[in-house]
Amino acid sequence: MHSLEALFCAVDDFCQVFEPLWTQQLLSDGTKRRQRQSRLSLSERMTILIAFHQSHYRNFKAYYLQTVTHTNSPIV
What we know:
It contains 3 helices and no strands. The chain is an all-alpha fold and 76 residues long. Helix 1 crosses helix 2. Helix content is 58%, strand content 0%.
């Protein structure tokens, strides 16, 4: 994909179909699990990961800090 917006739209369309089917297929062993809401949706997280794999970066932390959050702090 050439555009980040086009990539997000394709991933979001996929997640709209996949996520309900996935939650329906999850097996429960009887233990209670937390269902916390995350700050980013599944499609947003997947878009970031796909864009990372399409980029020239070698580690995710550098990609995330410099591209996603736009900080120029040194990597520790």
